[in-house]
Each structure stands twice: as structure tokens, then as C-alpha cells.
Amino acid sequence: MIDAGPVFYLATLAFLLTVSGLLSWCRKFWDRRSRPPLPPGPPSFPIVGSVLSLDDPTRPWLGFNVWKYTYGDIIYARLLSKPIVVVNSEEVAHDLFDLRSAIYSDKPRSIMHEPFSLDCTIGVMPYGDRWRLHRRIFHQPFRRAAVPIYYPVLLRSAHRMLSGFLQDPAEYSSHFQMFPSSFILSTVYDYEPKTKDDHLVHGILRYVELASANLGLGAVMVMETFPLLLRLPTWFPLATFKRAAVNSSQTFHSVKDVAFQDVKERMSTGRVAPCLVADNLNRMSGFADDIFTEAVKEAAFVAFGAASETTVGTLLVFLLAMVLHPEVQAKAQADIDRVVGKDRLPDFDDRPALPYVEAIMRETLRWHPVFPLGVPHATTTSDIYKGYFIPEGVTVIANIWQAHTTAMTHNEKKYPSPDEFKPERFLHEDGSLTSDSMSLAFGWGRRACVGRHIADAALWIAIASFLATFSVHKALDEHGEEIPVIPKFSPGLTSHPETFPCRIVPRFQDASLEKLMQLTGLVAEQL
Ligand code: HEM
């Protein structure tokens, strides 16, 4: 008779586990043998994956460029435990994200999203019905045809930014920051913040700071590797991360609810200009269900974060380029003076007559894109591309920076001398604009930036207004000598120039606030 004691059960369990382990290994082995190879890539080691092959893991795009010369335009690697596919050419990016968008429009999952309420933000939402709903909510107010409605708001926001430069030129970053804060809150909530200490700006910025301070690559990797850390109670001494998550999530929900409610109340008295919240609620004509209402609240809150860092970063790149290239600045200013004159400031009607200013904007987006690696996508199913196997669920990164810079290597005619700031590359010999509108900087396919039309209008008016009224020069030391500017860029998902010394000087006559008010038409309370 068989003794069915504990030893027997343990032995049977061990046997079954071994057999199932062997079967699963055999299946994986067979799958691997029967499918095409993965794209080539750097060696991968246990735990760290291919991280050691990157010279500077905080600026991975530089390492991806180096990989390109060995492994080509499509690379497979592992960053710690995350498998990634790096796309290193515009052609491959177009093939995958545009032409196969049904497969390449998902976003990588992370256990960090939900604790910080990032699961409510469209940019990292999985490809599916919830994302579609959010995308429609954004598309309605920010589609190309709707953007001219916001021209007055964009002009006002740009003019208020100019008054900031006049009053305190050294604080240029914070004036650039105020510009998107002002136009995005107007276009989303019909709300114009008066100062940078405004309660709504403050609340949203607080959330953005909390989330970005705690969601660095290192922290994410640690949490992904040891997910139990997320279960620590908030009172636990080492649970600072958990406390930050609770804090940021509370901020997210309370600020989004209050701001939304404010618009609804004003709508009931008919005092709301066109904006994301009102347009979407009007579209539902009183039939908005809870899911839709919540999605509008979330999308409205998220718009600020999406618009703010990208717009500020791009304007900082513009300012840096002007300091380094006074000849470009002077040429643009001569054009503006000729077309607009000195008695008024540029407006959107002047845009077609100012191709050189347009070319400066495109070159700014090309020279140093704020998303050097775009925003990563993921695959919904496996795929085979150019004979390589692309696994399901893999993170797919478009090396936008690479697509810009090494276009020289692959297409000498497109962006020769890519490190140089040359707006002329976007102009024909007769001075008219080429068809290259630098759409690359806004991503690809179904997940491409849904705010790109308003971003385009905002960047243009900010650049044109600045050049019309101010010049930026290198700062001077105590001997009157120019202080050299050595460009340094921040690491991270978004990258922008670190603060640099410069002198911003007015170029309009009687450079006073009164004169600026005359030129802009702003009244004292709007400054
Ligand atoms: C200089 C300005 C901007 C740049 C360079 C920029 C760039 C980008 C990029 C590269 C993406 C990711 C695309 C992808 O996943 O392939 C993105 C997504 C997005 N952008 Fe922008 N953006 C800018 C301004 C704005 C503005 C003003 C808004 C205003 C609402 C906005 C809203 C969004 C949203 C909601 C997404 C997520 C789209 C989705 O996942 O479906 N962006 N942007």
C-alpha cells in the first residue's frame, strides 16, 4: 500500500513542478526556434540587462546613437528587466508607428502609474476605449480648425509674458513658464491666472513636481523590481515614496474636481468662453454620464502638464539659440520690422509674411527636441518587421534625437551639419518655406501629440512677440567682457537647456510699461 504521508505529497508536488517547468522551457525554446530572430542589440546581462553599454544612462539617446553604428536602425535590448526596441530612423518609425499603428499604439505598463494617478493621464494610457474617449475630449477643442478661436488668448498670454521680461528680465524661465500656464488654463477652463502664485497653477504644479520628483528612472526600476515596497503602510519610516504617492494622488483629484466645478457653475450662468470643459459638456447637451464627466475632469487637468514643460522647454531652446546666434536673431528682427513696423506687435495675420521666423521655430524643434526619445510606445501583439520578431508588450522607443541628428549620415541633403542652428535649412532659395514642418517633434501615428496645433500657434506667437520687442545677448562680466555660454541640457524624459547667463534688453522706443501697454493693448490689471 502507498504511504500517502507528507513526504509523498511533497515529492509528487516537486515532480509536477519540475515537469511543468520543463514543459514551459521546452515551449519557450520551441517558440524561439520557430520564430524569426529578435533585432540585433548589445549584450544583455542578468539584472542590469544592457544598461552598462550606455555611457550615460540618464541620457540614453546618446548611447542609442552609439548602438546604431553597430546594430543598425532597429535594436533590441533590455534596460534592467524591461525589454525595449529602439527605433533609430525616421523610415522605420514611419513604418511601425504610422503604417502599423494598430500594433504600435499601446503604452508600456508600470506599477507606478496607479499610485500617482498617472493611470488617469492620456499620455501613458493603454490603447483602448478609455484612451479613445480621452483623445476625443482633447481633439474637440484642439483640432486644427478650432485653434484660431484661441488666438486672442494666445496673444494676451504672449503679451503678458513680454511685460514679465520688461519688469524682471533675469527671471526669464519663470516668464516662459507663465506663458503656457496662462494659455492652457484659458483654453481648458476659461480661467486666466493673474500671477505665478495663482492657486490653480500652484496646485497643478505641485502635483507635477511630486510626480516627477518620485518617478525618476531609478525609483521606477527599484519599485518595478521590488513591488512589495508599494504595499508599505504610509506611517512606515522608509515609506517616503508611498507618502508622496498618496499626497500627489490627493492633489490630483482635489484640484481637478474644484477646477471643473468652477467651470460648471459659470456655465449655469452663461459666463464661459470656448474651452475644453465647456465645449465637451455642451457637446453632450446634458447627457454626460459619470464616465464621460470624470474623463473630462482628468483630461482638463492633464492638459496643463502636457503643455507646460514642452512649451517652456522649447522656448528655452529658442532663447539659447538666439544667444548663440546673434546673426539669426538680427535677421528675424529685420524681417519683423519690415513686415510689422514699430507701431504694433506681430499677430497671427503676419505669419505667412514671416517665413524666417517660422523657420526659426522649426529649427528650434529640430535642434534640440524636448522629447529626445519621444514618449515610449508598446506593442499590443507580436509582429515581424524586416525579418525580425518584435514581441508582444515590448516597449518601443523612437529615438527622435537620432532621427534628427544622423539624418546627416543617412541623408546628407536633409539636415547637413545637424549640430548647427540653421533656420535656412527650412527655406527654399527664394526664401519660401519647405514642406518639412518638423512634425517629427510631436511623435507619430495614433498617439502623436493631440495638442500640436495649439502648440504650433503658441510657439510662433511667443517667438515672434519676443523678437519684436526684445533682444537677448550674452551676459557681461565686471570688466564688460561677454560671459561664454556653454549649453547644458537636463537629463530625463524631457530635456531642456539648464539656466544660462544672458541679458534680455528691450528694443522698442521708450521701453516703459506704459509703452508696452500701448503696443499690446493690455490694461494694468492684465499685466
Ligand atoms: C512644444 C510643444 C509640444 C511638444 C514638442 C509635444 C510633443 C509631444 C510628443 C512627442 C508626444 C508623444 C507622442 C507619441 O506618443 O508618439 C506628445 C503627446 C501628447 N501631447 Fe504634446 N507636445 C507639445 C505641446 C502640447 C500641448 C500644448 C498640449 C496641449 C494639450 C499637448 C498635449 C499632448 C497630449 C494630451 C499627448 C498624449 C497623446 C496620446 O497619448 O494620445 N502637447 N506631445
UniProtKB/TrEMBL annotation:
Q: Pathway it acts in?
A: Secondary metabolite biosynthesis
Q: Tell me the SUPFAM superfamilies matching this sequence.
A: Cytochrome P450 (SSF48264)
Q: Where does heme bind?
A: C449
- Claim: Transmembrane helix is one of the keywords in the record: yes
User: What does the UniProt keyword field contain?
Assistant: Heme, Iron, Membrane, Metal-binding, Monooxygenase, Oxidoreductase, Transmembrane, Transmembrane helix
Give the similarity note: Belongs to the cytochrome P450 family.
Q: What is this protein called?
A: Cytochrome P450
What is the protein's species of origin?
Answer: Rhizopogon vinicolor AM-OR11-026
The opening ranks of the lineage are: Eukaryota, Fungi, Dikarya, Basidiomycota, Agaricomycotina
